[in-house]
Each structure stands twice: as structure tokens, then as C-alpha cells.
Amino acid sequence: MRILAIDTALPAVSACVLDHDAEQPIASETVAMERGHAEAIMPLIERVMSKVEGGFPSIDRVAVAVGPGSFTGIRIGLAAGQAIALACKAEVVGVSTLAALAAPLILEEFDGVVAAAIDARHGKVYVAAFGPDGRALLTPRRAGAHEALRALGDGPLMLIGSGAELLAKEARAGGMTVTIVSEQASPDIEYVARLGLAARPETAPAKPLYLKEPDVTLPGKPPEAAAAPTAPENETPPEAEAPAAEPAPDSVPSQEALASAPAQA
Questions:
Q1: Disulfide-capable partner of 178 in 157, 207, 227, 241 (CB 3.0 to 4.6 Å)?
Q2: pLDDT tens digits for 63-97?
Q3: pLDDT < 70: residue spans in the chain
């Protein structure tokens, strides 16, 4: 199986093509950017696909990072992924950005908890946590550092993502052993691809994973009765009619599961 992975959910635009039995991607490109994802994604995908023998017709599956992240960025990636999947008659699956951030740490031997955290601004993070076997210990949510850590046990704790320092500060104050592996803003696109290979389309839908309510005022209600908190700077509020979230899988496959992804897909 050959997969095209796409990520525009966070401050980068990325694409990668990976064969299920390959140790390295066939082609991959990532460009860090805060804005301009809509203009950048298709030219970037075309550059990546120009390096792939067989081109677009050789793609069997498309994986898209479905969030959490920028509302606008998530929709841009989903639109591109679904259009390409339709044209190529390929399957399309969704991959959580938190799971993709955590995946390379879970492939390493460790004793404790891996937590991926994305800065959601205003003292909050988007966070998910996993055990050594990839099992979800904390499902994706938007929470304050103290609230998140209460669900993570006594550690030790390995952190990755732009919200890692916020969690680490709270963890150290509570006497927990904590290691920040990386404060990278976006996941490695290769792991979006690997998780996409291991996913099942029926349980990993290509639908937005929104963890924050849109900023809307309901008809007939005064603003103070219906207003949600101001959106973090890294999110653009969705339209009022945006569909409800349907989360991507909570767990991250183990090293063995990733290695045998075709059988599971």
C-alpha cells in the first residue's frame, strides 16, 4: 500500500508519500508557516508527487491530519485530501496531530507516560497522553496544565509539542519527573503517514477534530448568554454550521503494529 499524508493543521504545510514496507518516505516536504496554507498546499503536494514513480494514480490511501489545530488549516487539509482521494479512487483516513506528535516517542522504550501538548493559548493546551503500549491514558482535550496533569498519574512524564513547557512547569512544581523531548510546533509528516497506514477507515474518519467551541452568538440570545471564550491566536473560528467533531483513534499503534500496518489496514 502506498499512502499520501497531508498536514496543514498547525504552523506548517507538509506532505509525504510512503510505501507500507519502506523504512523511509519516497518523498517528503515540510514548509513552516503561520498563514498561507491554502495557497501553499497544492503546489507542495505537486512537488512531492513529481518525485514519486507512478504519480497520483499510484496512491492507494490518503491520510490527513484532522486536528487539533487551526480551524482553517484543518479544513484546508481535509479539502485537499478528500479531493485527491476522490480523483485517485483512494481511501482517506484522519490522523490526530497529538497522536502523530507522540508516535516517535512511543516507538522508543520508556517507563512512564508520553504526553503530546499543543499550545492553545490563554494558559491551556490541547493534550493527549499514552502508555508504553500506545494505549490512550488521556484522550484529546483542551485543558489547563493542572487539570491535564491530574489525569496523568505520578510519572515519569515525557513531553513533546508546543505546549510541553507549560505542562512541564506545572509537573515540576508538583514534584513529578519530567523530560521535554521537543517543543516542535507540528508533527513529523512521516508519522502522519505511518499512523495513516495503520488506521482503519471506518474508525479513523477524515473529519475535523475540534476541541474548542466556535465563537458564535445563538439567534435570539444576548451575546453574554451565548458567547464562547475568544479563540486562541492559532485558531480561526469555524462557521456556525461546522459539523461536530468525530475524533480520530485515541491510541497510537505499537512499533509492531506500525510495522504490520498493511495487515491492519
A1: 157
A2: 999 999 999 999 999 999 999 999 999 999 999 99
A3: 213-265
The answer to whether 185 and 206 have CB atoms below 8 angstroms apart is: no
Beta strands per DSSP E along 48-200:
61-67, 91-96, 113-121, 124-130, 136-144, 157-160, 178-182
Q: How far is 101 from 238, CA to CA, in rounded Å?
A: 24
- Its pTM stands at 0.81
* 127 vs 121: CA distance, rounded Å: 13
Given a contact cutoff of 8 angstroms between Cβ atoms, the answer to whether 157 and 150 are in contact is no
Distance CA 122, CA 77 (A): 26
CA-CA distance, 145 to 167, in Å (whole number)? 5
For 132-135, the CB contacts below 8 A with 24+ separation are 132/106, 133/254, 134/106, 134/251, 134/252, 134/253, 134/254, 134/257, 135/251
C-alpha to C-alpha distance for 2 and 261, rounded to whole angstroms: 11
pLDDT at 243: 34
